Amino acid sequence: MNSVKERMIAPEEIRRQKEIMAYVRDIISRTEGGRKAFIETYGCQQNVSDSETISGMLCDMGYTITKDKQEADFIIYNTCAVRENAELKVYGNLGALKHLKTKKPNLIIAVCGCMMQQESVKEQIRKKYKHIDIVFGTHSLYRFPEILSKVVTDGGRVFDVVSSDGAIAEDLPVKREEGPCAWVSVMYGCNNFCSYCIVPYVRGRERSRRKEYILDDVKELALKGCKEITLLGQNVNSYGNDLEEDIDFADLLEMVCTVDGIERVRFMTSHPKDISDKLIDTMARESKICKQLHLPVQAGNDRVLKTMNRKYTKASYLEKIRKIKEKMPGITLTTDIIVGFPGETTEEFEDTLEVLREVRYDTIFSFIYSRRPGTPAAKMEDVISPEEKKKNFDRLLEVQDVISKEKNLELQGKVVTVLTEGKSKNNDLFLAGRTEGGKTVNFQGDDSLIGQFVQVEITEAKTWSLTGRVVD
Ligand code: SAH
Ligand code: SF4
Ligand code: F3S
Fold first, then answer.
1. Pair 359, 347 in one domain
2. Residue 195 to residue 372: CA distance in whole angstroms
3. 187 lines ligand 2 (CB under 6 A)
4. Is residue 169 part of a domain?
5. Cβ of 235 below 6 Å from ligand 2
6. Do 185 and 209 lie in a common domain?
7. What is the rounded CA–CA span in Å between residue 218 and residue 255?
8. Where are the extended beta strands (E) located within 195-331?
9. Is residue 348 within a helix (H) or strand (E), and if so which, with residue range?
10. What is the pLDDT, as a whole number, of residue 5?
């Protein structure tokens, strides 16, 4: 395994990128009316986090961020490759930009992220989307200033996609959405190679950030008024495996909990095969760690789990859940499910429903299997029709909707502590915040409550939402 030093992008290289940022800033400061950038992000929190770095670098280079694509001088799509429909959406959006580019020839258009790490995608953009100026992959993120500066100064197209096991770049500027909650990456990449999943191919091998950098980020966020931190990684339970220092994820959680001002700590994602007794005990003991766990099961049948390369069985998964519930009664549990994995029969799918009924998750995130070229499952054969898969998918939702509603109804009439995050997305007259379990509650109140913990009585519990009123 590479040493930690080799897996870090050299500080001199980061300094060089910062010098380039200053150079671009100088050019932009002399441009009349300034320059505006629009960023659209697809996919998981890892991409959201990368977009925060892109945003930080753009601001450093003198751009202001706009939410209106039409007025932008620079447009960037940060893409996801996990399912085909995510990719199709990006192609649709890129096609639509052709018109805007004709109207505004100085517009610079970039695409980055996981999709770009696939050779076929890169080539498609090179040949069929000639209005795209910049393509860069996940391993080139830290070089974004250099890439953009080439296009700003010389024009032309830049393609920067490298295949790599991945490295970590620290000390790049980051611009986060304001608010009391923030995400902090603790590791990148994945070593698990679940047979359906593209992530290890587009994100590289697992690599953990050194604890000093993570704690510095958390302390800085706390100083800015952040109260809730979600630690992020594709498989946080492997945190530290690649570090020289003897540290694991439970140790890291404890350290994050000692930061003054941080009152809630969450994390995702945990792989069921790696969740340790030590982690469960740490979660149970430490009051700042929210009693909420996302534990993707994917499927309930042992044969299917084996072909998925998940490395646990239905029984061993349920045993972990039993332990978790015993140590933390009332914990909020969520999961990911794939329906229609190649070779899964409807009878095998029944085992997934059984897991749902036994665990009684608060919410599930469910997906119909999507073939990802280059992954082992892409070569496996289906045994049921797309229609039957869809029927199974609908049954899954039916079973879960009843459970989700019952779980939410348990909260009706109860008073819960909510961290107010901002205005409600659906109704401007309401505020929204989350419970310790991560459930969103909408309630009426003064804007001064934003960023504050409030006691809220749940007055109406539905399958998908909770409404409440502030109590003293
Ligand atoms: N690292 C996380 C999540 C990765 S991607 C984990 O291990 O759980 C998020 C979810 O997308 C996965 O949990 C899985 O349910 C789903 N997913 C991944 N690849 C998929 C595919 N090819 N088709 C359908 N869903 C997929
Ligand atoms: Fe994909 Fe599996 Fe890694 Fe999650 S653990 S990112 S599902 S390969
Ligand atoms: Fe998608 Fe890449 Fe995340 S493929 S799910 S954005 S790691």
1. yes
2. 10
3. no
4. no
5. yes
6. yes
7. 10
8. 207-208, 228-232, 264-268, 292-294
9. helix 346-359
10. 58
- Each as own residue / partner, the long-range contacts of residues 82-86 (CB below 8 Å, 24 or more positions apart, any chain) are 82/43, 82/44, 82/114, 82/197, 82/198, 82/199, 82/370, 82/372, 83/367, 83/370, 83/372, 84/370, 84/371, 84/372, 85/370, 86/42, 86/43, 86/115
State pLDDT tens for residues 65-92.
999 999 999 999 999 999 999 999 999 9
360 and 393 assigned to the same domain: yes
Check pocket membership of 199 for ligand 2, CB cut-off 6 A: yes
In the chain, the percentage of residues whose pLDDT exceeds 70 is: 99
Mark whether 142 and 21 lie in a shared domain: yes
Tell me, using a 6 A CB cutoff, whether residue 94 lines ligand 2: no
311 token code pair: 């490395």
Angle at 86 between CA 84 and CA 89, to 5 degrees: 110
Average pLDDT over residues 180-196: 96
pLDDT tens-digit profile of 249-262? 999 999 999 999 99
- pTM assigned to the model: 0.95
Q: Looking at the structure, tell me whether residues 375 and 229 fall in a common domain.
A: no
Q: Could you tell me the CATH number of the domain that includes residue 388?
A: 3.30.750.200
In which domain, by residue range, is 450 found?
Answer: 415-471
Tally of domains within the chain: 4
Which protein residues are within 6 Å of ligand 1, measured from CB?
82-83, 196-197, 199, 234-235, 269, 271, 296, 298, 336, 338, 367, 369-370, 372
- Ligand 2 in reach of 83 Cβ (< 6 A): no
Residue 170 covered by a domain:
no
What would the mean pLDDT of 323-347 be, rounded to a whole number?
A: 98
3-state secondary structure of 241: coil
Count of CB atoms situated within 10 Å of the CB of 30 = 8
Q: Which two tokens stand for residue 264?
A: 């809630």
